[in-house]
Recover the amino acids of this structure.
C-alpha cells in the first residue's frame, strides 16, 4: 500500500542513532512516504550516516541549527498535498499517514490532524493525549474529532499549502511550544485543527536533550505568542498566571527576561486574532491552568 499524498519532514541535531532508528521505521511504512531530513548543523556524522544508510532520503544541510525553521526549509521542497512532521526520536505507525490523508481528503476545511502519542519503550499514552481527547474548544458538528487550539508538530499532518500560507514556524521562536503561534494563524486563515484517536505516532524520548533550556524557551515562546496575538486583557491574565505558576528558578527568570527584551519587535509584529479565534483560545484557559502535561510552561 503505497501512498503518494504525504511527505514526512524530520529535523535533527546531533542525535544520529535516534535519527537512524526513526528513518528505519519510516522506511518500513506501507505508505512508503518521501522523507526529507533537515540536519541542523550536526557534528556527530549524522549527514554521512543518512547518506550511507538511507540514500533515498532527501537531506538538507543548512550548516547551522535553525531549530523549527528547519521544517520550513524542508517544506519548501515538498511536492505532496500533505506534510507530516516527526522528530528524530519519533515515528509514525503503519497506516496512520494514509489515515490522516484520508481525513484531509474528506474534510476540506480541516488544516491539520494530530495523532495519538505512545511513549516507548512501554507503549504508554503520553499524558497530553487525554487533554487532546477532552479538548473544550467548541467544534462544528461535521468535524471528525475534537477541535484543537494548537497542535504538536511531532504528531501532526498538515496541508502543505495551508502551512506555507500561514508562514510556517516563526524564525524567532526556534523551539519549545513553537506550534502555538502557527496554529493560531492557521485558525485565523479559516482552518480547523483536529485530533484523531485512531492515528498513532510513537515517541521514544532521546536522552540527548536539555530539558531546562527547552522549558525556558517554552515559557518565553508562550509569552511572545500571547503578546503577538492575544488582546490586552487575556494577554495580561496569561502573563500573570505564568508568573505565578512557573518554577522559581534561573530558567524561568531568563525566559521572562528574554521575552521582555523582545518587546520592540513583538509590538511591531503584533496582530490580534479575530474574535471567533480568540473565543476558542479563551475556552482553553481553564484546561491550561489545570494541565499536568504542559511541562514547557510549568
Amino acid at each position: 500500500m503505497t501512498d503518494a499524498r504525504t511527505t514526512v519532514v524530520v529535523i535533527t541535531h546531533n542525535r544520529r542513532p535516534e535519527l537512524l532508528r526513526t528513518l528505519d521505521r519510516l522506511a518500513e511504512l506501507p505508505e512508503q512516504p518521501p522523507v526529507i531530513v533537515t540536519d541542523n548543523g550536526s557534528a556527530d556524522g549524522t549527514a554521512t550516516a543518512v547518506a550511507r544508510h538511507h540514500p533515498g532520503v532527501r537531506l538538507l544541510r543548512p550548516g547551522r541549527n535553525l531549530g523549527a525553521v528547519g521544517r520550513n526549509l524542508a517544506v519548501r521542497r515538498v511536492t505532496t498535498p500533505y506534510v507530516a512532521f516527526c522528530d528524530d526520536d519519533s515515528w509514525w505507525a503503519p497506516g496512520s499517514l494514509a489515515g490522516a490523508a484520508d481525513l484531509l481528503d474528506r474534510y476540506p476545511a480541516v488544516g491539520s490532524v494530530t495523532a495519538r502519542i505512545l511513549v516507548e519503550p512501554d507503549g504508554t499514552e503520553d499524558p497530553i493525549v487525554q487533554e487532546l481527547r477532552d479538548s473544550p474548544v467548541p467544534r462544528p458538528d461535521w468535524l471528525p474529532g475534537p477541535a484543537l487550539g494548537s497542535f504538536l508538530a511531532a504528531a501532526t499532518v498538515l496541508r502543505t499549502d495551508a502551512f506555507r500560507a500561514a508562514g510556517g514556524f516563526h524564525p524567532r521562536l526556534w523551539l519549545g511550544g513553537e506550534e502555538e503561534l502557527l496554529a493560531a494563524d492557521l485558525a485565523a486563515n479559516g482552518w480547523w485543527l483536529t485530533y484523531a484517536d485512531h492515528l498513532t505516532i510513537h515517541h521514544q524520548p532521546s536522552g540527548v536533550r536539555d530539558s531546562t533550556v527547552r522549558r525556558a524557551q517554552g515559557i518565553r515562546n508562550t509569552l511572545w505568542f500571547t503578546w503577538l496575538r492575544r488582546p490586552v486583557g487575556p494577554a495580561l491574565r496569561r502573563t500573570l498566571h505564568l508568573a505565578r505558576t512557573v518554577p522559581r528558578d534561573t530558567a524561568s527568570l531568563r525566559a521572562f527576561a528574554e521575552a521582555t527584551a523582545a518587546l520592540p519587535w513583538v509590538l511591531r509584529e503584533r496582530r490580534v486574532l479575530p474574535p471567533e479565534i480568540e473565543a476558542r483560545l479563551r475556552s482553553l484557559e481553564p484546561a491550561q491552568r489545570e494541565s499536568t502535561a504542559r511541562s514547557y510552561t510549568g
Notes: The radius of gyration is 18 Å. The mean pLDDT is 94.
